[in-house]
Amino acid sequence: MVAASLCNEGACAMRDDSPARILVVDDDAEIRASLRRGLSIAGFTVLLAEDGAAALRQVRDDPPDLVVLDIMMPGLDGLDVVRRLRAGDEALPVVLLTAKDAVPDRVAGLEAGADDYLVKPFALSELVARIRVRLRRQEATGNAELRFADVRLNTGAHEATRGDRLIALTNTEYELLRLFLLNPKQVLTRDRIYERVWGYEFVGESKVIEVYVRYLREKLEAGGEPRLIHTLRGAGYVLKEQA
C-alpha cells in the first residue's frame, strides 16, 4: 500500500504543458485506485492496467510516457513485462514496485531492464519525485556532441556510437554515459553518480550503480574494444584510456 499522502499545503504542482501519461500496472485494485488519485493530483494523466498482458497491449496501442509496474502479478509478472517492453523499446522509462527488499531481488529488476524501483510500502511523494526525474531525462538537451576516445554521444538525438558502431542505450545508460563523458579522467564517486543520474539520496547498500556500469561496459565493449570505464576500488569510477 502507499504509505503517505503526496500533498502538503500548496505542494501539488500542476504541469503547464500537456501532462505526462503514466501507465500504472498492478493486480491490486485498491493500489491502482490509490496511485491514480495521487498521480492525478500531481498533474499526470494516469492510465491503468490490471495485469501484464493488459500493460503490453496498452503500450502497443497507445504508448505512455512512463510505466509504473508491480513485480508480483499472476500470469506475466513485472520482470517478464519489462523484458518484453525492452525488446521493443529501449527508451520507455519503467519504475518497478516490489514487496521484496533484498538486494538480489532489486538487482533482478534492474537486470530485466527497469530504470528504477521502489520497495513497498513507499511514500507517494517519493514515487512522484522518481517519476519526475525519469521524465526529465527524456527531455531534449540540445544538439551537443560529447566525445571521448572513439565514443560519441549526440545529446539531441540520444544516440551513442563507438567508432562506426551504433549503441542502443536505455535512458539510465544514456544518463550514465553522459555523466562520464562530461567528466573524462575524473574520479566519480558512487554518491555523485547516484545523485546526478538517479537524482535522489544515495542508498549505500544498493547495487544499482554496479549493475548499470556493467550494462554500459558490455555495450561499449561489444565489438571487442578496450575498456574505457574503470573501477577504482574504494573511490568510484573513471572514464579513461588504458595507459
Give the topology, please:
Layout: E1 2-4, E2 21-25, H1 29-41, E3 45-49, H2 52-61, E4 66-70, H3 78-88, E5 94-98, H4 103-112, E6 116-119, E7 122-123, H5 124-138, E8 145-148, E9 151-154, E10 159-162, E11 165-167, H6 171-182, H7 190-198, H8 208-220, E12 229-232, E13 236-239
Parallel strand pairs: 1-7, 2-3, 2-4, 4-5, 5-6
Antiparallel strand pairs: 8-9, 9-10, 10-11, 12-13
Helix pairs in contact: 2-3, 4-8, 6-7, 6-8
Features:
single chain; alpha/beta; 21% strand; 243 residues
Explain how this protein is built.
The chain is globular. The protein has helices spanning 29-41, 52-61, 78-88, 103-112, 124-138, 171-182, 190-198, 208-220; strands at 2-4, 21-25, 45-49, 66-70, 94-98, 116-119, 122-123, 145-148, 151-154, 159-162, 165-167, 229-232, 236-239. The protein is α/β, with parallel strands linked by helices. It has a five-stranded parallel β-sheet with strand order 3-2-4-5-6, with helices on both faces. It has a four-stranded antiparallel β-sheet with strand order 8-9-10-11, with helices on one face. α6 packs across α7. It is built from eight helices and 13 strands. The protein starts with a strand and ends with a strand. The model is unreliable at 1-16 (pLDDT under 50). The longest helix has 15 residues, at 124-138.
